[in-house]
Write a structure and sequence with these properties.
- There is one protein chain.
- With about 280 residues, this protein is an alpha/beta fold.
- The protein has a domain at about 10-195 and about 230-235: Alpha-Beta Barrel (TIM Barrel).
- It has helices spanning about 30-40, 55-65, 85-100, 125-135, 150-155, 175-185, 205-215, 215-230, 240-245, 255-260; strands spanning about 10, 15-20, 20-25, 45-50, 75-80, 105-110, 140-145, 165-170, 190, 230.
- The strands form two sheets. Strands 3-4-5-6-7-8-9-10 form an eight-stranded parallel sheet.
- Strand 1 and strand 2 (about 15-20) form a beta hairpin.
- The longest helix has 15 residues, at about 85-100.
- The structure holds NADPH dihydro-nicotinamide-adenine-dinucleotide phosphate (NDP).
- NADPH dihydro-nicotinamide-adenine-dinucleotide phosphate (NDP) binds near residues 166, 192, 193 and 233.
Length: about 280
């Protein structure tokens, strides 16, 4: 069992979040409990799941089996795209807690803004998440894949600033405009696909820095995120890579390394995922 202490970041609602966690996107439901148990064993204390991943139950089983107290593990889930209407969101959130076997989540997010669906209304969806925060079943609430214009609408029409915005960010898509908006408005950025699902790991610049520091390209990339102040939760099904991705706190990148990695940004063409302004996927 690791004795590493993971830094935490303060959220705008008084809560705090471990800066490094474990993501379970694309881990098949039957394998999720085992993978999450291995991550908890490796020292991770923050798990990022979603209704869309269909593996909340495995996360819940792993946390229960770990012997850790519930308040030692930070658990995030997200509202699925088909459930933006308030009554659907309420039912879906009940389902999330039932699947996890928990009476609360630490963080619940609107997974995508879907501005071309629901008549462009993600505001009533956000108001429904405010209910979950008010009744204590979501300790913190936030959004995912929201662009500055979407966040401006929430600011104009509701009373709660999201605690986090979980967006795609990695060296090939640094997403700095959205991150800067978060910085100006007290919204913590969480960087999804932090190693671009592996696409940045043979980048020459990153490989050279890794060789100089005696680290792996994944460690260098994850360390770059941490030094930018973002929250990350790399996914792996391999205990060895889970440990590798966790060993980030005994080295540092200097400013030149950070700048060189940031300069790899390819703008829009560096995205691995969809553009949130157009994304309209609703699972069956
Ligand atoms: P990541 O950038 O975390 O990359 C995961 C991939 O990289 C897997 O194929 C994994 O393979 C491999 N990998 C992991 N560690 C290493 C390593 N050290 N060396 C080499 N290969 C490695 O991608 P994700 O898309 O999973 O993003 C992380 C998390 O972000 C998700 O799990 C999810 O929680 C969240 N997310 C949120 C989204 C949103 O819309 N809000 C969208 C996408 C992700 P292996 O398993 O074989 O190790």
């Amino acid at each position: 069992m690791s004795t590493t202490t993971i830094p935490t970041i303060d959220l705008n609602d008084g809560a705090s979040i471990p800066q490094l966690g474990f993501g379970v996107f694309q881990i098949p439901p039957p394998e999720t409990a085992r993978a999450t148990e291995a991550a908890l064993e490796a020292g991770y204390r923050h798990i990022d799941t979603a209704e869309m991943y269909q593996n909340e139950a495995g996360v819940g089983r792993a946390v229960a089996a770990s012997g850790l107290a519930r308040d030692e593990v930070f658990v995030t889930s997200k509202l699925n795209n088909g459930f933006h209407r308030p009554d659907d969101a309420r039912r879906a959130f009940d389902g999330t807690l039932a699947a996890l076997g928990m009476d609360h989540v630490d963080l619940f997010l609107v997974h995508w803004p879907l501005p071309t669906l629901y008549g462009g209304d993600f505001v009533s969806t956000w108001r429904t998440l405010e209910e979950f925060a008010a009744d204590g079943r979501a300790r913190s609430i936030g959004v995912s894949n929201f662009q500055p214009a979407h966040l401006d609408r929430l600011a104009a029409e509701t009373g709660t600033v999201p605690s986090v915005n979980q967006v795609e960010a990695h060296p090939y898509f640094t997403n700095d405009e959205v991150r800067a908006y978060g910085g100006e408005h007290g919204i913590v950025t969480e960087a999804w696909s932090p190693i671009a699902q592996g696409a940045v790991l043979d980048d020459e610049t990153i490989v050279k820095i890794a060789e100089r520091l005696g680290r792996t390209p994944a460690q260098v990339t994850l360390r770059w995120h941490l030094q930018r102040g973002d929250v990350v939760f790399p996914k792996s099904t391999s205990p060895q890579r889970m440990a590798e991705n966790f060993a980030l706190f005994d080295f540092e990148l200097d400013d030149a390394d950070v700048r060189a990695i940031t300069a790899l940004d390819k703008g829009e063409s560096g995205r691995t995922g969809p553009n949130p302004d157009r994304f309209d996927y609703v699972p069956d």
